[in-house]
Amino acid sequence: MTTSPQENTSVIAAQALTKIYQRGREEVRALDAVSFTVARGEFTAITGPSGAGKSTLLNLLGCMDAPTSGTLRLDDREVHGLDERARTELRRSTVGFVFQHFGLLPTLTVEENVVLPALFARRSSARRAEMLLEKVGLLHRRTHRPHELSGGEMQRVAIARALINEPRLLLADEPTGNLDSATGYSIITLFQQLNAEGLTVLVVTHNAVMTAAARRQLALRDGRLADGK
Ligand SMILES: Nc1ncnc2c1ncn2[C@@H]1O[C@H](COP(=O)(O)OP(=O)(O)OP(=O)(O)O)[C@@H](O)[C@H]1O
Ligand SMILES: [Mg+2]
């Protein structure tokens, strides 16, 4: 079988992605025909003013929402041609997601939070959880609960959790938005390290240091990409 180089390397291929929300009788065109590709190993920052459509785009890329029109290929598979079960499977195996507000479950320990997505995917994970907690510098906190951690530590646990199923793509929506600048810097450094190890990283950010750390910047405004492709 022959494949083009693009098919071998493209983690994200978005074609004319459009998302229209219905707000009462009003239509909100949150994304308007956005097209771009992300190659394996890229570190991309998505910037833009509030309301530009950044979270909407990330939710589509993370298969958490469906576009009104347009197509999305993740890892060379057309996301919305799949039935729901296959799409869930694709999301679990391909994408890790990190949120601004961390999203840890308060009643679970650090280690249980990290392992949780692997339980849903029916994968064994104890060793990998240990390795990831080591990588984010929190192995000594494995039995603690989230409320015993600082914001930066919670975000590092959330990053370890996002990586438990060995995704090819890490998506993050303002991951430093709730952190002071020094703590945010440690998250940026961690993303750089993960990217240097081969992980494809795409981050929505208002943080100038994060934007500079990414090797590629895409600017969204009024649901459209201002530059990039
Ligand atoms: N569920 C929804 N229903 C209706 N409108 C929505 C919904 N979600 C987002 N919108 C609208 O879509 C547009 C884009 O929103 P989005 O959350 O993607 O912006 P954003 O770039 O992430 O902004 P911020 O920087 O403030 O997080 C905004 O006009 C917003 O009000
Ligand atoms: Mg947002």
Mind explaining what this structure looks like?
The chain contains 8 helices and 10 strands. By secondary structure, the protein is α/β, with parallel strands linked by helices. A hairpin with a 2-residue loop joins strand 4 (69-74) and strand 5. The protein starts with a helix and ends with a strand. The model is unreliable at 1-7 (pLDDT under 50). Bound molecules: adenosine-5'-triphosphate and magnesium ion. The site of magnesium ion (MG) has 2 residues, from helix 2.
User: CATH superfamily assignment?
Assistant: P-loop containing nucleotide triphosphate hydrolases
Count of distinct strands: 10
Sheet with most strands: strand arrangement: 6-7-8-3-9-10
What is the helix/strand order?
HEEEHEEHEHHHEHEHEE
Tell me the β content: 25-35%
Give me the Rg, rounded: 17 Å
- Structure classification: alpha/beta
Which second-level CATH architecture applies?
3-Layer(aba) Sandwich
- At CATH level 3, the topology is Rossmann fold
Helicity, as a percent range: 25-40%
Ranges where pLDDT stays below 50 over 5 or more residues in a row are 1-7
